[in-house]
Amino acid sequence: MVPCPLALLLALAATALAEPLRFVDCGSVDGSIQEVNVSPCPTQPCLLHKGTSYSINITFASKIQSQGSKARVYGEMLHVDIPFPIPEPDGCKSGIQCPIQKGHSYSYLNKLPVKSEYPSIKLIVKWELVDDQDQMLFCWKIPVQITS
């Protein structure tokens, strides 16, 4: 039997191995991004393997109060945003303790599943989190390559 503290230590070690990514802020108005982590993504552009799920961890500070938040994810190709479904769009079920308080920092945690049927292509992942007034808490972009 593995004691719970050991499992927690292993999870923290895995998170510590994630390198902060270079990202483009694409319109964070009601929040400021402190760090973007995608795991595993040792180099950029991130190689996203079909049939794999990637861990997303965004640390941001809120400039507003909000009862909730909702994520929207897109694959951007030729300056066109194509919606990219994620398992849990509700930010309050993704590591953020709601209601969101002005001046507080939060860690937003989610998964990015890469389906087997996706084409092998280079594109930009655009990830938005909006508040309950549909204003941008954060928006970031990174280059990725979907591969077999």
Automatic annotation (TrEMBL):
MD-2-related lipid-recognition domain mapped to chain residues: 23-144
A single GO molecular-function term is: cholesterol binding
One protein family per Pfam = E1_DerP2_DerF2
**Listed GO biological process terms:** cholesterol efflux; intracellular cholesterol transport
Q: Please give the SMART domains that the UniProt record associates with this protein.
A: ML (SM00737)
| Listed SUPFAM superfamilies | E set domains
Q: Name one GO cellular component term.
A: extracellular region
* Endpoints of the signal sequence: 1-18
Subcellular compartments: Secreted
Q: Which UniProt keywords apply?
A: Disulfide bond, Secreted, Signal
Query: Which family is it part of?
Result: Belongs to the NPC2 family.
The record, for PANTHER family, names: NIEMANN PICK TYPE C2 PROTEIN NPC2-RELATED, NPC INTRACELLULAR CHOLESTEROL TRANSPORTER 2
Q: What is this protein called?
A: NPC intracellular cholesterol transporter 2
Origin organism is: Pterocles burchelli
